Task: structure prediction
Amino acid sequence: MSLRVALRPAGRMTPEFALLLATVTVLLVLGLVMSFSASFVRSTAETGDPFGIFRRQVLWGLIGLVPLGIVAAADYRIWRRFAASLLIVALILSVLVIIPGIGLEAYGARRWLRVGPVTIQPSEVLKLAVPLFLAHLLARRWARVRAGDLHGMLMPALPLLVLVTVLVMAEPDLETAALLLAIGGLVLYTAGLPGRLLVLGGALLATFAVIAITAVGFRTARISAWLDPMGDAANVGYQSVQGFMALGSGGLFGTGLGQSRGKWLFLPNADTDFIFAIIGEELGLAGSLLVLGLYVAFAVGGIRTARAAPDAFGKLMAVAVTGWILMQATMNIGSVVGLLPVTGVTLPLVSVGGSSLVITMTGIGLLLAIARSARPLATSTGADQAPEPERERA
Result:
């Protein structure tokens, strides 16, 4: 298939495509509205321009529409030929970012690279590159994988996940490393990895996480703040307590759009990590449930797309993107409401962020492309249609 042919509009309007597109559109619009509401105080304090952060977010959103539109309109299978190249670029960037003097350091971590006038976060690129490569690799070996060939499934997938974890942990960024491992594990499980091996991997990951947390003081402090935020409400528990106060003051319908008190430099990272707290304060329980409902709708659309995907690559990639967005949203919202320790990950499509928004929109574009090619699900028996077999290539 030539690149020119593959980039022509392909597929059709399907219920899965319509549901995903509507959900993503509402989340993007809501994100822009709340990004301005949550950021104008900080933007004014830092630059004197209340619209500064908002304008950048709008610009990043417009930039993100380009790859989203191109990827969603094209035949999704064409992007397989770029899987290895994108992964190599992402790994190179991940090595560069941990080199002193090259990576930009903030909040005690070195996670950003400056490329000309923009700043990018290599770990965000990995969120797309790793599942794209794994889905491509496993689809090539689909017959062997479905026959239970563990070596064909885990090599080189497992070494890759270990390498990615080491690089991201070196920044350090435990939360993103855990998210990348979870996405990789989800792809492998969908391909047929036995549940017992997945449980074993999860146990090893949990052990590693405990060691990583206890070995670093600030991570131990985060756990302490999670278990008892009021125990040190002026220091390590401060962000959680301020988030609870913002959520609690919202009531049923909120204080009104733009009327948050927490964003007046009381709540740290109000426009990024803790934007859900501002949503809860200004839009109340009703607004919070709306956001949760949108992610549930996204889950329904993504799962239906995976079930109806016409081939193995489409199925695996749909699962990966859906899991990525939902797990990241769960980590963010869970940390804001106190179900999880404060993680530092953003709320997909809603939080302020540049490279993260563009990469997320690109991944969703791929999911939309798969949805446009989805086959009607079997209705008479309720059984899923099996993906078309793929001939293994050398």
Notes: The first helix runs from residue 3 to 6.
